[in-house]
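Ticket reopened. Same input as before:
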Amino acid sequence: MWVKPWNMKEGFLIGGGLLFTGILLQVAIGPIRWELFAWPVNLMVLILLLTAVGAMFALRRSVYAFEWMMHAGAAVPCLVYAAALTILMGLLPQVSTGGMPWLSQMLRFWPFVLIWTWMMMISGLAALNHLLRWKVKEIPFILNHLGVVVAIVAATLGNADIQSLQMTVFTGKPEWRAVDDAGTLREPGLAIELHKFTLEEYEDGTPKRFASDVTVYTEDGKTVQGTVEVNKPLKVNGWKIYQYGYDVRMGPESAYSVFQLVRDPWILWVYIGIFMMIAGALCLMLFMAPKPVRV
Amino acid sequence: MSWDSFIWFALGALLLWAAGAFFAWKEKKVWVYVCTLAGIAVFFAFILGMWVTLERPPLRTMGETRLWYSFFLPVAGIIVYSRWHYKWILSFSTLLSFVFICVNLFKPGIHSKSLMPALQSPWFAPHVIVYMFSYALLGAATIMAVYMLIRKRASASEINLTDNLVYVGLAFLTFGMLFGALWAKEAWGTYWAWDPKETWAAATWLCYLVYLHLRKAKPGEWESACILLLVSFVCLQICWWGINYLPSAQGLSIHTYNVK
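Engineering reply: fixed in the latest deploy. New output:
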């Protein structure tokens, strides 16, 4: 071990070190509080991460560990740790409070987050390495490795900036106040007027369609008319308005409709990452799979 | 088209697939394609019939996803046959498809017309269909792994076939997962919520990524790669149906197939 070239053993040891460091952090400062990552902290963390990866790439010739990180042998142990922790997360009930110490809030567990961060750095370094070769045949590799980094980093760092509000609107009474998850009153800067809530049912009584005919008025003077339905949100001024609920006791006679208003400033980057990954997966089967060897 | 006629379509398709498998052993290539493709057409006719009758894609219940799985196994089989000319592959895919058809005959799902509003989306069909195709390919890769581990030896072409099945299977697994994310954003406002099914989908995806990178890092170690495929397939099964029996997922998952 630790004899060049490094392969997987070194990676398992480094991963073990990360788990240990994570546990120390967990004991010392408690679970990660993702809400602290709200703008502009997430931007600063992003700049820090990008600088770190850039510096590691620049120093790859003088620091062997950085060079090694770009190889598949470094990816294997990291992916094994990530898979193991994710399996653990799937086996243990995840609850917002209580449950098992540490493992019942896996997303706030330092070792989990450190391993995933390490994975993003490895994937980012490998992507950068292939990107700077400026060759067409490197595109599939770059799409896969950069795509996953863009999607996951944007999703994780952007999470604290997501605004998710609930607004209950009675027919004919325009509403502009909403509540967040903590129950605090918020004003999203738009008002919704409900004209009609529709509930259609199948013959067996199960719901077929929920829909609300609405007019949305924005602070900057826009008026948008439309229908909000399950799977068909209405997009107004950066907000997406979802059909969320109704008065279940009254059914089709419900006097109100509940909407969920979601605003995610980082969504574009998540989508860019996802589409890179889709293109990457297409390349994976068309160009990256080994050529058939016939019997 | 009703579920009662399934046995006749299934029987017809199975006979054609068995004939295709037989001709593969006899090296009558034209008949292999004619029979297998005819069987696929017969089976697909039933799926289409169900689709029209139910007025929704037959993808909602566990039994309906098994229907697609039985369909995609011979599809994957004939693709592999056309590229590698393995004589045995169609026998395997037919046998496996037979097992799933039997499960569906003895334990049919509930097939009512109702489709809850959350599932009424253009993403519904592609999300589930690409997953089922991926499961079929990764199932075939698992069979290859078992085959090589039992014989304790592996030829270059067998390893090559296994790699190919995993590459294409993983690509479809990725499509399924990401189509699901895009759909979830439209339906619930979040693209990823670590719902138990999503957690297991991520775990499965990571396991197959380990395989891909392990094959690059240690090309000679085919045995550990094969064992890894078995572990990955267990994760995949937990993700597909095992999750319904896991205490961690009770009452939480939006992905339950049960109809109340």
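Residues 8-29 of chain A form the longest helix (22 residues). Residues 8-161+267-288 of chain A form one domain. Please confirm and we'll close it.
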